[in-house]
Amino acid sequence: MSLIGVSSLELCQLLEQAFLPDRSVVSCTDDEHLTIQLGQGDSLSNCVTVTGVRIHSLTSCHELAALVAQVREEQRLGQACRSGLAPR
Questions:
Q1: Can you give the pTM of this predicted structure?
Q2: Which H, E and C letters describe the chain, residue by residue?
Q3: 80: pLDDT confidence band, cut at 50, 70 and 90?
Q4: CA distance 19 to 5
Q5: CATH code of the domain covering residue 65
Q6: Is residue 30 part of a domain?
Q7: Contact by Cβ (8 Å): 83, 46
Q8: Domain residues for 58?
Q9: Residue 18 resides in a domain
Q10: Which of 13, 20, 22, 33 gives 20 to 30 Å between its CA and that of 42?
Q11: How far is CA 9 from the centre of its chain?
Q12: Would you state the pLDDT for residue 37?
């Protein structure tokens, strides 16, 4: 699956679905960078916030899955805020 042709809104929705059952809010205000907030369960209190994720770095489903895994790992490690997280 290529992400070419996927709008930023669709990308945000894909990521939010990938983080279920935990609550997440994924936003893109400039069509270039994502901000991801990932909470525990239904709450966003004490959430992990990742900012500055470049949309153009997400060109395949593998990179999208890697991003989800990285944010989950940040959540597991209890990182409060991370900027510019990019797929490995």
A1: 0.83
A2: CECCCCCHHHHHHHHHHHCCCCCEEEECCCCCEEEEEEEECCEEEEEEEEEEEEHHHCCEHHHHHHHHHHHHHHHHHCCCEEECCCCC
A3: low
A4: 22
A5: 3.30.160
A6: yes
A7: no
A8: 8-77
A9: yes
A10: 33
A11: 12
A12: 96
Q: What angle do CA 60, 1, 16 make, to 5 degrees?
A: 70
Write the pLDDT tens digit of every residue in 61-79: 999 999 999 999 988 887 6
Cβ neighbors of 42 (< 8 A, separation 6 or more) are 23
What is the structure's pLDDT at 18?
Answer: 96
In a domain, 25, yes or no: yes
- In this prediction, residue 46 carries a pLDDT of 83
Decide if 43 is inside a domain: yes
The 10s digit of each residue's pLDDT in 30-61 is 989 999 999 988 888 889 999 999 999 899 99
The encoded tokens of residue 25 equal 């809010």
For the beta carbon of residue 12, count every other beta carbon within 10 angstroms.
19
